[in-house]
Amino acid sequence: MRPAQRQGHGLDFHRLSVDPGRPLILGGTTIPSDLALLGHSDADVILHALSDALLGALARGDIGDLFPDTEERYKNMDSQLILKAALDLMQKDGYHLANVDLTVMGEVPRIKPHRLAIRERLSELLGLPLSSISLKATTTETMGALGRKEGVGCMASVLLLDAGP
Ligand code: MG
Q1: Digits of tens for pLDDT over the chain (165 positions)?
Q2: How far is the CA of 165 from the centre of ligand 1 (A)?
Q3: What is the pTM for the complete model shown?
Q4: Distance 49 CA to ligand 1 centre (A)
Q5: What is d(CA 43, CA 12) in angstroms, rounded to the nearest whole number?
Q6: How many A from CA of 98 to the centre of ligand 1?
Q7: Distance from the alpha carbon of residue 47 to the mean position of ligand 1, in angstroms
Q8: For residues 128 and 130, what is the distance between their CA atoms, to the nearest angstrom?
């Protein structure tokens, strides 16, 4: 018999650079900015942390197992596909998502002006009401690499509930 609930957490970081030609995408939402996150995929640090939290709750490895960054076909891939793959596994394993709690870490970009738009996009992607999607942000008080604006991090926490028969 499977457990009635499972919790998971995910953590991700991506380097930040000034690149007006590359979109800055956070939580499936394009943020108007000259800044961009660097990575093999579209580097959506929120969706990566969230997808890893889902996989973690299911004990299904991590997103690097599903989408190796050594594979050319995943270059610049839309991270919504990564999230979709994790949600498909969740459904296959007989769970549904109860709530998500996200914390973005870094000095820039400021999350607050985009918080509602990102939560609304996540609501669509996850099929959850806004009241079940928390998005928080913190700086590191200028300490360390994130404090020097070299990158952005995100921590995600999820709770899954047994979806029933
Ligand atoms: Mg990542």
Answers
A1: 889 999 999 999 999 999 999 999 999 999 999 999 999 889 999 999 999 999 999 999 999 999 888 888 888 889 999 999 999 999 999 999 999 999 999 999 999 999 999 999 999 999 999 999 999 999 999 999 999 999 999 999 999 999 998
A2: 34
A3: 0.96
A4: 7
A5: 10
A6: 23
A7: 8
A8: 7
Architecture of domain 5-162: 2-Layer Sandwich (3.30)
What's the 15 CA to ligand 1 centre distance in angstroms? 10
* Closest listed residue to residue 104, CA positions, set 152, 143, 57: 152
- Domain chopping of the chain, boundaries: 5-162
Strand order in the sheet with 151-162: 35-38, 5-18, 151-162, 95-105, 133-138
